[in-house]
Structures are given as structure tokens and as C-alpha cells.
Amino acid sequence: MKKGKVIVIEGVDGAGKTTQINLLKEILNPEENIFLKEPGSTKSGQEIRRVILDNDLDAKTEVMLFYSARNELILKEILTALERGQNVIIDRFELSTWAYQVYGRQRPDLASFIENLSREIIPENLVDKYYFFDLDVEISKERERSRDEATSRFDAQGVEFFNRVRGGYKKEIMRYPHQIIDASKSLEEVTEVFQKDLLNFLK
Length: 203
Known about the structure:
Order of helices and strands: EHEHHEHHEHHEH
Distance between the termini: 18 Å
Number of domains: 1
Number of helices: 8
CATH superfamily: P-loop containing nucleotide triphosphate hydrolases
CATH architecture: 3-Layer(aba) Sandwich
Number of strands: 5
Shape: globular
Largest sheet: 5 strands, parallel
Radius of gyration: 16 Å
Strand content: 5-15%
């Protein structure tokens, strides 16, 4: 039986997800909470991340790679942290696969494939709560452009793609315990709402 809680932070790029995770790191005790990124918090996950971002892959191939990284993350990081009694806060998880590969890439044929992988790899009820930072795609793209950062092939997708991703998130998240955060508000307002809910939940 796990001793800590698993929290997943999701959102389209530009919605402020990374900023909120960094702010959490400043207030949460590192001995009681561990922060992970998917894919990327294991050596194999970092290598898989590079393969996914640097190659034009079929959506099914992406799914298999994401679940390979996810399996390693669960076995080597998440479960061991939970047994230590730590809370686990993850930057993206399974919901991203549904949003990007099924909805964004318009591949509903992958749904049963993903569900089978999930049953094999992810322990039942592993995630205690999802947070989704919701933002109009036009605004999120404008925020991204203002950062002047390097973009991946996913970032280069058009508005229609990210509207599908956003819709996928909002539909699929209903299957899980969750909180949708209005990311259009000021940084201070978003931070207050998010941290208040999260801290209460961790108690």
C-alpha cells in the first residue's frame, strides 16, 4: 500500500504549468515531496524524450515510447518514492498521451491500445489527483512566442492541433479525480488558487 500521494500537473505549453511547478518547489519540503518529469526523470526517459522530439514518428510509435518511459519512471522513481512516504508531483503523465496522440494527432483508433498498455503498466488508482491548467490556445501560443525559446516539433503544430489537445484534456480528465485551473488569470491569482487546493489535498 502506498504511503504518499501522486499529483500530476498537466496543461498545454504556455499555460503556466512549469512556472507553477517551480513555485511549488520553493514551498514544499524536499524530504517529503519529489518532483518528476515525464518523460525525462530517468536516464532512459531522457533518451526516449530526445527520440520523440527529434524524429517525425507515427502516433502509435510515440505511444509505445511514452509508455516505455512511463514504465521505467513508475518502477524506478514513483513506487520507491511512495514507499518512502514521499508525495510525488509529476510534470505530465498518462493524460498527455490521450490529449496529444489520440486527440491532437486525431488517432481514436489508438484508444484501446492505450487502455491495454495502461492496464499492464500503471498500477490501479496510482494518480490521486490531476491538475489541468486550462488556457485559450491563442493566448498560450502568444505566451510561447514571447518567451523566445527553442521549440520542438510539437510546439510547431498549428492552433487547430492544440485546440484538439485542449479538448482532449478537458474530456479525458473527467475520468480521474481532478481540478481544472483557469490559467488566464494573473500569475498571483492562479498561484493562490492552485497552491491552496494542492496544499489542502496533500494534508
